Amino acid sequence: MIKKLLRMFRGARVEVPGTDALAEGEARKVSIGNSAGGGLEVLLCRVDGKIHAIDTLCPHEAGYLIPGPLVDGKYALCPLHNFTFDPKSGKPIVGSCPKSRVFKVIEKDGNAEICL
Predict the structure, then answer these.
(1) How is the chain split into domains, by residue range?
(2) Predicted TM-score of the model (pTM)
(3) Which of the pair, 35 or 66, is modelled with greater confidence?
(4) Spatial distance between the Cα atoms of 8 and 91, rounded to a whole number of angstroms
(5) CA-to-CA distance for 13 and 47, rounded, in angstroms?
(6) DSSP string computed for 46-91
(7) Radius of gyration, alpha carbons of the chain
(8) pLDDT tens digits along 59-88
């Protein structure tokens, strides 16, 4: 269902206002589309001064990456098995599972655009 939704939005940009307030080493969850209809949730993470977007769905056993402080100030956490992911690339840092999906982010005037 999510793959179908992503194909529908592919090439679209979703604006997220107020991302300049996201502190270094923090993550914030953003919902895109209708959550009841299989929408998408991404985690916006500020690492090294830039915002990165990673899918909240963990590719290992359907856990979810959580908002809040990033592990070591730079890794998104799935608390189901304490797996961590690099929000820049989606690669797992701790845990053996596939990469998580990442999205390009364009920051402008205190807002962010997520490119789907």
Answers:
(1) 2-115
(2) 0.86
(3) 66
(4) 25
(5) 21
(6) EETTEEEEEESB-TTTT-B---EEPBTTTBEEETTTTEEE-TTT--
(7) 13
(8) 988 799 999 999 999 999 999 989 999 999
How long a stretch of residues is the chain? 116
- Cβ–Cβ under 8 Å, residues 56 and 42: yes
Residue with tokens 């999510």: 2
2-115: what fold?
Rieske Iron-sulfur Protein (2.102.10)
Task: Assess contact for 24 and 73: CB atoms under 8 A.
Answer: yes
Reading the block at residue 96, the tokens are 């053996």
Cα 93 to Cα 10: distance, rounded to the nearest angstrom: 28
Identify any residues that bridge with 83 across adjacent strands, giving them in sequence order: 78
SS3 99: coil
First to last CA, the chain: 15
Residue with tokens 């604006």: 15
